[in-house]
Structures are given as structure tokens and as C-alpha cells.
């Protein structure tokens, strides 16, 4: 029998939460034949990722997933066999009662934020709180054995490999976004939060000997781009050239298109969680802008990932990429760090591919969740 899954998502940071849960819901349906209801409290944010969404509907089907608007005034709903509270969101009290009233107790999991910190392995899969007799469990995505792994659809790496080897396919895709890639120009994607370090980075590229073309999908970093351009227009499609640097604003694009954008680029600057993972599957050098937390807790997570990610790099390459990440996340001057990264380009590119293959050797997150359920029953 088809197992029913309910996934609850509260949209906190624009697109990261819904981006992860939307990918997960689709994969559970397509690859594991689960019946999935995705409960979302903000359909407008969801619409940016899935333009087919009708934000006026309380219930609709998208790519095999039953999408439900999560209303403030909850209606009585039968609980599913598997319940996922994404990123520790609080379930409606009436739904929790419905879980407790089921004849067969459901599996209730908190799908937590991605982290490379050592303590995650010890907490993954452990019981959490109880509601009446319904036990909740921790489920942590991660980069090491003993965690839940990363979201990765079946065949993703092979599709990426074929695309990256097909110059014609890349050119057609970029032209569809209005991008004309000049010969001997290195492409960079930039999806980030506001960052005071951007001006020094752009200044360095503009004054350097190499040609760079930075593609900036609509997002929060555009305010900094506008300031660097001297309040010139940064509307979608705008192309600005200053020295060796070309800056182009792209429209907000669907997840599958964003994957292809990452695959086209030589270097990817990403933010949050969803784009962070997709950049790793792109197997290209990258720069992560981690979501800022109170008391700089996020910096501990940044350092934990860097310790894992830089294993095996030579000293200069490790120093270059770590310095760049730390400067970017502190909003500091990027000049020297970017020059060092460019000098270590070859090793960093080879390392990105090796890291991608290492992560792909483990079970993906959706498969791990399904296996956890089967073991639980």
C-alpha cells in the first residue's frame, strides 16, 4: 500500500525552507511512490519556485504532490502515516491530536537544518519529545556517515555531467536567459544575502587581468550590486561592464533552471541551505554565504563545514578558499583572498569534483528517510 506522508513547511527565509521541502516532496513521490501532502504557510514564496502554483487555492496538485495551504485556522484533517515537521516548525495542535488518535501511531520526525558539526552524528535518529504517546525523532541531514545525507535525485550527477560536456546545450540555456558568454570569460553565479564585502570583490575582478561575467539572479544582494554600480539600474536583463567585469541581472528562475545555471558557471556563490547543496552537486568551486544567527552561532557551523570540505587540499589552496569564505561571511575585504583563490583554481576545481563524488557515495536524504520509516515499522 502507498504510504502517506505529510510535510509541514513554515517559510522563514524566503526560499530555503520551501526549496528543501519542495524538492523532498517531489522525490518521495517520483522515486519512492509515496503519497505526499506538502503543507505551506506562504504560497507566494512558493510561487517563485513553482510558477504553476495558484496562490488562491487551498488545495492543488503539482508534479504529483498534493500542495495544501497551511491556514491559520486549522481544519480537522486525518494525520498521515509519516509526519515531517521541517526545520522544527510547530504543528497545529489539532493535527497533533489527530496523530494521537490514529489507530496506528504515525512516525513523527523533525527534519532539522543541515550542519557539519560533530554533535549531529550523535543526535541523528534519536527520540525527541513526545506528544501524548506519539514520539518525535530527530533527523539530521549531513555530510558524514551516521547522518541523513543530502537531497539528491536519482540520476542527477549523470545529467549534470552530460550537460557540462555539451557546449551547445549550455549556450542554448544561457541564451534563453539573455546571457551571451564571450570567449575566454569565466562565469560566476551570485546568489547571496546583503554583503558589504561585495564591493571589494567586484573591484578586484574589474581591475584584474581576467574577464569575469557575474550572473546575479534576483535576490537580496542586488542592493549591494546597485551601490557598486553607482545606483545604475539593476533591473532584470540589465548588463553592466566595468573594466574586466561584466555584471548581469537574471530573473528568479525555477529550481531545475538554477541547477543548470550552477552547472554552466566556473564558480558559484550561494547562500542558505538549498542552493548550498545544489552547488556541491555542480562540482565546481564555490563560496557559501551562511544564514546569520544570533551570537554568531552560524560561524561555528561555517568552520565545521570548512574542516570537512578542505580535507586533502594543499596548504595554499586550503588557506585561499577558507580565507575567502571567512572574509565573505564577515563582510570583509575580499581582494587578497580572491587573488589567492584564482591562483589555486586548478586544485580547487579538482577538489570540488572529488567532494561531489564522495558525498554521492552515500544514500540521499529521501532514501534515508524512507529507510528510517521502514526500519521503524
From TrEMBL:
One of its GO terms (molecular function) is protein-arginine rhamnosyltransferase activity. InterPro entries: EarP. It comes from the Bacteria. Signal peptide: none annotated. Keywords: Elongation factor, Glycosyltransferase, Protein biosynthesis, Transferase. It catalyses: dTDP-beta-L-rhamnose + L-arginyl-[protein] = N(omega)-(alpha-L-rhamnosyl)-L-arginyl-[protein] + dTDP + H(+). Protein-arginine rhamnosyltransferase that catalyzes the transfer of a single rhamnose to elongation factor P (EF-P) on 'Lys-32', a modification required for EF-P-dependent rescue of polyproline stalled ribosomes. Belongs to the glycosyltransferase 104 family. This is Protein-arginine rhamnosyltransferase.
Amino acid at each position: 500500500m502507498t504510504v502517506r506522508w505529510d510535510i509541514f513547511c513554515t517559510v522563514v527565509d524566503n526560499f530555503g525552507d520551501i526549496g528543501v521541502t519542495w524538492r523532498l516532496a517531489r522525490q518521495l513521490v517520483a522515486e519512492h511512490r509515496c503519497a505526499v501532502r506538502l503543507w505551506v504557510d506562504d504560497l507566494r514564496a512558493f510561487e517563485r519556485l513553482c510558477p504553476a502554483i495558484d496562490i488562491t487555492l487551498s488545495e492543488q496538485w503539482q508534479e504529483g504532490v498534493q500542495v495544501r495551504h497551511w491556514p491559520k485556522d486549522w481544519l480537522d484533517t486525518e494525520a498521515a502515516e509519516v509526519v515531517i515537521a521541517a526545520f522544527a516548525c510547530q504543528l497545529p495542535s489539532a493535527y497533533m491530536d489527530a496523530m494521537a488518535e490514529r489507530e496506528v501511531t504515525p512516525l513523527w520526525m523533525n527534519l532539522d537544518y543541515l550542519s557539519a558539526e560533530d554533535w549531529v552524528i550523535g543526535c541523528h535518529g534519536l527520540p525527541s519529545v513526545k506528544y501524548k504517546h506519539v514520539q518525535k525523532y530527530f533527523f539530521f541531514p549531513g555530510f558524514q556517515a551516521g547522518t541523513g545525507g543530502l537531497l539528491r535525485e536519482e540520476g542527477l550527477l549523470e545529467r549534470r555531467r552530460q550537460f557540462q560536456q555539451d557546449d551547445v546545450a549550455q549556450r542554448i540555456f544561457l541564451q534563453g536567459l539573455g546571457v551571451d558568454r564571450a570567449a575566454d570569460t569565466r562565469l560566476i553565479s551570485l546568489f547571496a544575502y546583503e554583503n558589504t564585502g561585495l564591493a571589494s570583490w567586484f573591484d578586484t575582478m574589474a581591475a584584474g587581468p581576467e574577464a569575469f561575467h557575474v550572473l546575479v539572479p534576483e535576490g537580496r544582494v542586488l542592493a549591494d550590486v546597485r551601490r557598486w554600480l553607482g545606483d545604475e539600474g539593476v533591473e532584470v536583463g540589465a548588463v553592466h561592464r566595468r573594466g574586466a567585469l561584466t555584471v548581469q541581472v537574471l530573473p528568479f528562475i525555477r529550481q531545475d533552471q538554477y541547477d543548470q545555471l550552477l552547472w554552466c558557471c566556473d564558480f558559484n556563490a550561494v547562500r542558505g541551505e538549498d542552493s548550498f547543496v545544489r552547488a556541491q552537486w555542480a562540482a565546481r568551486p564555490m563560496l557559501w554565504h551562511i544564514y546569520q544567527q544570533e551570537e554568531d552561532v552560524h560561524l561555528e557551523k561555517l568552520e565545521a563545514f570548512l574542516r570537512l570540505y578542505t580535507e586533502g587540499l594543499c596548504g595554499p589552496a586550503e588557506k585561499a578558499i577558507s580565507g575567502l569564505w571567512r572574509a565573505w561571511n564577515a563582510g570583509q575585504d575580499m581582494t587578497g583572498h580572491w587573488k589567492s583563490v584564482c591562483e589555486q583554481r586548478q586544485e580547487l576545481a579538482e577538489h570540488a569534483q572529488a567532494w561531489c563524488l564522495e558525498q554521492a557515495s552515500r544514500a540521499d536524504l529521501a532514501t534515508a528517510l524512507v529507510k528510517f520509516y521502514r526500519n521503524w515499522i
